[in-house]
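YM 10:42: NADP-dependent succinic semialdehyde dehydrogenase sequence, as discussed on the call
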Amino acid sequence: MPIATVNPATGETLKTFDALGAEEIERRLALARTAFEQHRTTEFGLRAELMNRAADLLEQDQQDIARTMTTEMGKPIVAARAEAAKCAKAMRWYAGHAEELLADEHPSAADIKDAGASRASVHYRPLGVVLAVMPWNFPLWQVVRFAAPALMAGNVGLLKHASNVPQTALYLEDLFRRAGFPEGCFQTLLVGSGAVESILRDPRVAAATLTGSEPAGRSVAAVAGDEVKKTVLELGGSDPFVVMPSADIGRAARTAVTARVQNNGQSCIAAKRFIVHTDVYDAFCERFAEGMRQLSVGDPMQESTDVGPLASEQGRTDLEELVDDAVRLGATARCGGQRPEKLDRGWYYEPTVLTGITTGMRIHHEEAFGPVATVYLVGDLDEAVSVANDSPFGLSSNVWTRDDGEVRRFVRDLEAGGVFFNGMTASHPALPFGGVKRSGYGRELSGHGIREFCNVTTVWHGAEPDANS
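YM 10:58: structure's back
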């Protein structure tokens, strides 16, 4: 696809960009390697000073970069401002915690002796140049949650962003440059997906991280595996939202609306499959559908808008096909299920609640990337766990219960990278984030995330010779 800003609220192409040529890509790879040799030896104090400065600049730019994100991919402006603020918070968190998270570790005296050493320690050293292949749905946050820990660990970054958010991508390079990071520490590569393989195979690139679709993840993982390079993948999700009889149904239904339509429903960790116990099914469905009907769909630049357009025309077409297939096979649209009649421009779709889902429907197996919820009726805890796990994905999960025994069971048996009780899934710099099954591998954020792109180095010192020997 072309590298261009296309406003999804109108379908208008606002700005196009030329892809970098081979000579410029080579120059930037060389610059990245040179920058790493300088940056890897800097002290944590200096890195923290630069990262905090980047956070300051981002906060100053909050309104402008929020408008850029909304223009490029359609998220409501209120959410765009919140995304910028969250990025600044993560930058400050890593600036304040990186040194302790990467501090040298020392085994016990007994273990050192048993290893035949006089001294032993474990050190975390940066890997080098890391290629980040990032998606459009959280165009600032997805990048910062990689860049902040990577730069604080002493690595440098090359960003291949989604082709429909080029101005946000260029802003990120400029942000780290203005903050004072050495030239080449963080570079944006305006290239198409076809250029990723050759960049990843370049010996100056040490590792890669990708957030995106399952096919994209498979492609990057295959190349990296062939080159024996480390990867972290965060791919699709079809997160369950389980509601048990002891739940606060009012709160659960209100949270379900937000959990489903956050970012216009275009989030890997958005709740998508609502699995409801028969005792509370009718009450939950009624409140949930009514909450979805009440949402304001329209211009994402308006402060009152709850749901903006999908990011692309193809994305809306894909979502429509999933809904149409389900309805044709017997599902019921409790609300929505079509394009809003009042909006004749842009790629909008009504918030939709589908019930009567069966395993033969595509939407049961495929990720619905838009404001469409599927609701399942279950009779007991065992069935709830079974339906929740009946997905190729395992990113996160949400469970509403006040029963301690059920809590223990869901923690033990849900196949997901996270279990959020009585609330909705959210990412935070202090908590590891990632999934299992086809949702990918590795972790972002927290200490786990910053160590993903470190060389965990064992240092062993032989026993000192006996003075009398």
